[in-house]
Amino acid sequence: MLFNMMFFYQFTLGGIVFGTGLYFAHRQGYLNLSRIGLRNLLLILIPLFFYLVLQGYLQFGEFSSVAPAPFHGNPDRQPILGAPVDYGIMVFYFIMILAIGTYFGRRQKTVKDFFFGGQRFSWWLITFSLIATTVGSYSFVKYSRVAYAYGFGSSQTYLNDWIWLPLLLFGWLPILYFSRVTSIPEYFERRFDRRVRKWVTVFILIYLVGYVGVNLFTMGKVLNILLGWPILTAAILVASISAIYVTAGGQTSVIMTDLFQGLMLLATGIIILFLGIDYLGGLESFWHHLPRTHKLAFPNFNEDPSFPSVGIFWQDGMANTAMFYFLNQGVIMRFLSAKSLQDGRKAVFTVVLVLMPIAACVVASGGWMAKALVQGGFLPATIKADEAFFIAADFLSRPGIFGLILATMTAALMSTVDTLITAVAAIVVNDVYQPLFNPGANEKQLLKMARISSVSVTLLGILLVPLFMSFKTIYAAHGAFTAAVTPPLVIALMFSVFWKRFTRQAALFTLAGGMGAIVFSLFVPEVIIPFSNGVPMQETGTGIFAGMKQFKFMRAFYGLSVSAVIGIVVTLFTKPESSDRQKGLVWGTVKDAILHYKGSAGAEAAGRKTLACPQLVDRCLETAGTGNLALVDISTSLARELEAGPGDLLYISDRRWWLGGLYSAHTVIRAVFDESKKVIEIDRETSQAVITKKRVDRELLVEKLY
After folding, report:
1. 431, 433, 437, 438 alpha-carbon torsion, rounded to 10°
2. Which burial class, exposed, middle or buried, applies to 70 when counting CB atoms under 10 A from its CB (0-12, 13-18, 19+)?
3. Distances in Å between the alpha carbon of 362 and those of 57, 134, 148, 274, 434?
4. What is the pTM of this model?
5. Helices (H) and strands (E) in the chain, counts
6. Phi/psi-derived region of residue 304, left when phi > 0, alpha when psi is between -120 and 50, beta in every other case
7. Predicted pLDDT at 238
8. C-alpha of 185 from chain center
9. How, if at all, do strands 679-683 and 629-635 pair?
10. Which of helix, strand or coil describes residue 706?
11. What tens digit of pLDDT does each residue of 6-38 get?
């Protein structure tokens, strides 16, 4: 059957990308027969086999379902959609998020603080921040709609990140972390030249600003359903709240608010599942109330142009997932906010293997429950798929609980929009304002421009809301947008990182030619037919955006293919780049990146940690490497404990682990002095980032990293 074909299609093509990542990891020494190499291999294979077994079970398992029951509920029952206490909870939530965001953003003195939170956070804090960003405002409405119509097939988007895991963990992440680029366009300039940087800047700004518009459109639609507000008015309200705390506190505010919002998102989705399962009489009853077609991992191959599994694979699994983890400036800023490369890897692994499956259940919970309740006769079969989440939540909830759900919808919006706002501000400051208009800008000027950019992108996102209102569903708007924008960027970055032969001319032609081909397909969508895998054309009307609605998912495959061919052909006919421009920026050159980062040679290794007494010295801040890492002196006793010496990188922090690195700093050892006690000498500016006024005499946690 065609829907079974999709299982083999995904794991064959996805397995090729996965296997390519294993090859690069092996060539760089991450996977081998040593203890650490075998451990890495085992860990990287766990997600592959987990998703292989899970989706195979759903696709080929023998399941029984009860016959649909006629509706026997109250036909006159009107959805309450929130009592006064519910809206009170929602207002209180708005105020609380503003308070959290502005409180933790008080110490923003530099653009490094504003965009990367001082590069100091622990993996678990980054993890919840990433999941809050991934589960956007559109997720609950969008995936509940798909879950109501197609069942577990809605989980495809969240269960295909395994494809890119080896290339991300062992290829891109080390280069990204140690090269310390402040933005993706900056990477392309260092790899090639300024012309390539300009092209990438334009494309990424289009992507990020468009994403802001999609999210604001979604929240406007949510509040339109709940309160009857005009979509544009609702979007303006929520955008304003997000912009306030982001403008005040930057990345630190985003990470700390997203920690809370990530927990809220996961908890609320689980509450809906629990309430629904309890109402239906248990987990087994819920399972039997879902039709067999709703238990398939891949409900169809290419028969339904509104949701073809093959299209979702190319648009979401290949193009958009790669864009999200490798090129999305907001996610990149999360990785660069981690205290170490190892913490970044822990965060990614936990998200892919643990939190993504949970997120798939969370965002689809309303749709699954609505379908099971319709199958059992508790809800009428006439409910609209777009409103499945709200109807199920209202049916199962009581006053107070529904208010929590309303607050969660707000959290889902703001936890994605705040990331996008800071991402666009980073691009504007680092790739437009500073290099083109004010190369000598000081920190005060850069911070001012960062905040102006944050407000400006919010306004641009609002202006895009009417465009996305022209699509029938949020899912269609999101899919059509990402499939049209991401392919050239994805191919350009993958070739830049993993193909040393790739040239600057090829990068330019890949970006310009790939986007040109995609724009052409918007007006002549028939060119996508050879790449459509049999997905039929559909009636889309005659408006200016009708072409974007045609083959809205398969356009990703077309764009990836055309961009890849252009990149390969131009590369073979142009002169290779010099090896100097590749150091620390392509696979196999991580040691060069470490040297670039801390100003001395180093290697990835598991460091030692211990407690030490801080000793303040009255000297000006001295730094090393392009990371501008503060220089410190340590005692011989501490040096022996850490097995460290001059040039090694230390991470010093408040010993309270549950702060997640909020008070911490990266430093480089300048010298070792003779002292029997474990002591670290730090300047006053560094001490302000690590030591609070009430803990001046407390020991610090000192960890050797590289």
Report:
1. -100
2. exposed
3. 20, 12, 13, 11, 41
4. 0.85
5. 28, 7
6. beta
7. 67
8. 18
9. antiparallel
10. coil
11. 899 999 999 999 999 999 999 998 998 888 889
